[in-house]
UniProtKB/TrEMBL annotation:
This is Putative Xre family DNA-binding protein. It comes from Streptomyces clavuligerus. The lineage of its organism: Bacteria, Bacillati, Actinomycetota, Actinomycetes, Kitasatosporales. Pfam families: HTH_3. GO terms for molecular function: DNA binding. Residues 7-17 have a biased composition (Polar residues). Keywords: DNA-binding, Plasmid.
Length: 349
């Protein structure tokens, strides 16, 4: 089955032509196969296809479906982008094909009965729900920012590639930061303790510490710098994500832009909660002015993102049940130590 991209949207922002597929060169495929000392029948057997299909590919008589290309590259021990380069950043269909999936395969990850929402998003007709964005990002092994950028391209908008992110802070650093936050300590100048520090931070300073994030704009900038490589989802995507779970639509692209740029400095709790939903952080992040809370939330989200990627790659299978139980106890005890027992707080009658 060829990896279909469907038709493009008819809006004024849409492009007249679909984004190009990965470039397939039969001669290049043959060269890689020969270097690997594989016969056509060997490659065909590895891909569970007929030998004639490989013959047709290499001689320019046919082209493999786009979702086949990752498997071919893997069997030849080749880098996907090197063997089958793509001349433009990916849209939603491209990400799915890079994961080796058909549209029908996505339902197991979105827990839906039909791939129609995926098809509609790939054709630029209806945006994915926030839950689907998270589920597909995990399934496609990309970040939410990368998937949201791909969705924008599917709707016909020019969207640059999302910069690669560095590894988030390790869990041990999360514990240390949380303990400092509870004691009220602040990192010394020049100490790098914030999680997931990126090489780029957009228009905001790359060194903005959590304790400086007091306004809504600064809190948004801190999340974009620490979790999204300084770029983050667009204002329109944030509005869609914040309104994505039903109820009244409280966010608009214009409102998000005004809050992000500081043109609007206050917002009701409902708007703050929608922003938190859009960034996938608890509401306390935007409601609280405590820098310790900000550091702890961002650290936890960075660690969660890292282990979510590991789980998507099957990494959780390497952890035994006994080890998982010990880790749960350790995390529970550590968070109790960081947050306190609440015994010194006034009790509610």
């Amino acid at each position: 089955m060829i990896c279909s991209r469907g038709s493009r949207p008819s809006s004024a922002h849409s492009r007249s032509n679909p984004m190009p597929d990965r470039i397939f060169d039969g001669n290049k495929l043959r060269d890689y196969r020969v270097i690997r000392r594989m016969s056509q029948s060997d490659l065909a057997a590895a891909l569970d296809i007929r030998t004639n299909a490989v013959y047709r590919w290499e001689n320019g008589l046919a082209t493999p479906p786009q979702e086949r290309l990752p498997g071919i590259a893997a069997m030849l021990g080749a880098d996907l982008d090197e063997l089958f380069p793509r001349p433009a950043p990916p849209n939603l269909a491209d990400l799915r094909c890079d994961a080796g999936m058909r549209q029908s395969d996505t339902t197991r990850y979105t827990n839906s009965m039909s791939p129609m929402p995926i098809r509609a998003a790939e054709q630029g007709r209806r945006a994915l729900s926030d839950e689907a964005v998270t589920a597909l990002a995990r399934a496609y092994n990309v970040t939410r920012a990368e998937l949201l950028a791909a969705q924008r391209r599917s709707f016909g908008f020019d969207q640059p590639a999302v910069p690669e992110q560095t590894a988030p802070t390790a869990p041990t650093a999360l514990v240390a930061q949380g303990a400092r936050a509870r004691r009220g300590d602040h990192p010394s100048a020049g100490t790098r303790v914030e999680p997931g520090r990126q090489e780029q931070a957009g228009r905001q300073s790359k060194e903005m510490p959590a304790q400086a994030a007091t306004t809504i704009a600064e809190k948004i900038a801190y999340l974009r710098a620490e979790l999204h490589g300084g770029t983050g989802p667009s204002d329109a995507d944030l509005a869609v994500a914040g309104n994505g779970r039903g109820g009244p639509a409280v966010l608009t692209e214009r409102l998000v832009r005004e809050l992000r740029t500081g043109r609007r400095t206050t917002a009701p709790d409902g708007v703050l909660d929608a922003l938190a939903l859009a960034f996938d952080v608890p509401p306390v992040y935007f409601r609280s002015s405590d820098p310790g809370v900000h550091r702890l939330v961002v650290s936890a989200r960075a660690v969660h993102n890292e282990f979510t990627i590991m789980a998507a790659r099957g990494g959780e299978q390497e952890i035994s049940r006994e080890a998982r139980d010990q880790l749960r106890d350790f995390i529970s005890d550590t968070m109790a130590e960081i947050l306190g027992t609440g015994e010194d707080e006034p009790r509610t009658p």
